[in-house]
């Protein structure tokens, strides 16, 4: 029996199921799951284009990429984190003791890199280190 596109066959009862089904609709036998293939592809792509970096070794003018889903955040009443820094490409302006100043498409920002701690100004805000990647080194020194 030749399966059409978007179908898979149950090994237990030979019933045809949808390609995204996790279990057979007739015998409830679970299908083998290979893992999150899309997440693996994205991670491989990110690792190929960017390299993890020690933030203290960055210089003025270095171009970094912030992927998002890390860094300082607000904690909502139902426990959901709302991050304060937009993901994207940033250019380093200055290195400080607990992080670095950078600018991107949406303006200047401070990228916190210290230990995770609660803000002294607001109980629901937490300062947490960002995950940054080095995109590329500048060809020539920039005057900012």
Q: Unreliable runs, pLDDT <50, ≥5 residues? A: none
The chain-level structural class is mainly beta
Find the count of extended strands (DSSP E, 2+ residues). Answer: 12
What is the ordering of alpha helices and beta strands? EEHEEEEEEEEEE
How many distinct helices?
1
Mean pLDDT, as a whole number? Answer: 82
The main sheet comes to: 6 strands, antiparallel
Helix content: under 10%
Cα-based radius of gyration, to the nearest Å: 23 Å
Strand order of the largest sheet: 3-12-4-7-8-9
Distance between the termini: 67 Å
Work out the strand percent. 25-35%
Approximate shape: elongated
SSE diagram, text form:
Layout: E1 7-9, E2 16-18, H1 37-49, E3 51-52, E4 63-66, E5 73-75, E6 81-83, E7 88-95, E8 99-104, E9 107-112, E10 117-118, E11 125-127, E12 132-136
Antiparallel strand pairs: 1-2, 3-12, 4-7, 4-12, 5-6, 5-11, 7-8, 8-9, 10-11
In short:
The chain has 144 residues and is mainly beta. Helices cover 9% and strands 33% of the residues. It has one helix and twelve strands; from the N terminus they run E-E-H-E-E-E-E-E-E-E-E-E-E.
Question: Any overview of this molecule?
Answer:
Helix content is 9%, strand content 33%. The chain is mainly beta and 144 residues long. The chain has a domain at 38-136. It has a 6-stranded antiparallel β-sheet with strand order 3-12-4-7-8-9, covered by helices on one side. A hairpin with a 6-residue loop joins β10 and β11. The chain is elongated.
């Amino acid at each position: 029996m030749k399966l059409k596109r978007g179908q898979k066959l149950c090994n237990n009862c030979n019933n045809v199921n949808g390609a995204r089904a996790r279990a057979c609709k007739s015998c409830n036998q679970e299908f083998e799951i290979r893992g999150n293939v899309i997440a693996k592809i994205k991670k491989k792509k990110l690792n190929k284009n960017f390299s993890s970096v020690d933030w203290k070794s960055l210089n003025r003018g270095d171009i970094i990429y912030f992927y998002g889903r890390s860094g300082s955040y607000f904690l909502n009443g139902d426990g959901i984190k709302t991050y304060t820094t937009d993901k994207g490409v940033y250019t380093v302006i200055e290195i400080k003791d607990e992080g670095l100043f950078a600018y991107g498409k949406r303006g200047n920002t401070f990228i916190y890199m210290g230990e995770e701690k609660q803000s002294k100004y607001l109980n629901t805000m937490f300062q947490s280190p960002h995950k940054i990647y080095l995109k590329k080194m500048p060809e020539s020194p920039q005057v900012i």
